[in-house]
What does this fold into?
Amino acid sequence: MTDLVTPPLPFEAQSLLQTASRFETPCGSGAMVWHTWGQAARRPELAPLVLLHGGSGSWMHWLRNIPALVASGRWVLVPDLPGFGDSAVPPGGSDADALPEPVEAGLNILVGKAACDLVGFSFGGMVAGFIAERFAARAARVVLVGAPGLGVALEKAIRLRAWRHLADAGERDAIHRHNLAALMLYREEAITELALRLHIANVVRDRMKGRSLARTDALAQSLARLRCPVHAIYGCEDALYRGKLDLLQAALQKAPDFRGLALIENAGHWVQFERAGAFDAALIAALDAGL
It folds into this structure.
């Protein structure tokens, strides 16, 4: 295997980090890293907003959304989930079901007992659902974004190409672009240099191997036991659900207090990056519902 060096973060990520507060909370033998924005200017009637990134990701999955959410008056907390980004691996397990306890412990330190709006993208959607099930008082509401684990299987699995064995950076970049097109982004023009650099900075730091819960109905089972409102935002062209949006809707309705599925046109799996403006509007509408 080729030795890989974590590349420097894109300028856009470095700039946003300069406006963040950084915290560490215990996680296994190390720490879980959090970045937060907007605490001083938050609207006190709004719940803290926790954004949970996808698999092989980091806080940067939300790079294009954080400013709008802060501008809406929210205190935004975005961790690198255990085993990803700059955070240590969880104390036990290597899938989404191992993460609720360290995330809840971190939230207890950062926000006390406050109920939070939990927004989870892809793998992070499963984590959000599991937290809301195990720690019901923590969840004011759950918003699922492109989440798997709903028992809706594709006829043909998405095949991502291996890249760690390649010594040539150009060859690796070509594979990363292919993988972004295969799973993450729908429109070719969405695979920008920023998307590529964010993706690379994320995937080289993925230490959670052998994840399989995404291919089960584990999240659907949790949804059936949730007490809080559940919203969902998906790209119409999400590679995980293309041609199966009716089955997606049916699976989401297992949540007793399901509030609706917002579909974003011309967007794939990483919907909050590909159509950031439309996504932000849909998310803020979901978060404001019932206020």
Remarks:
- The two ends are 52 Å apart (CA to CA).
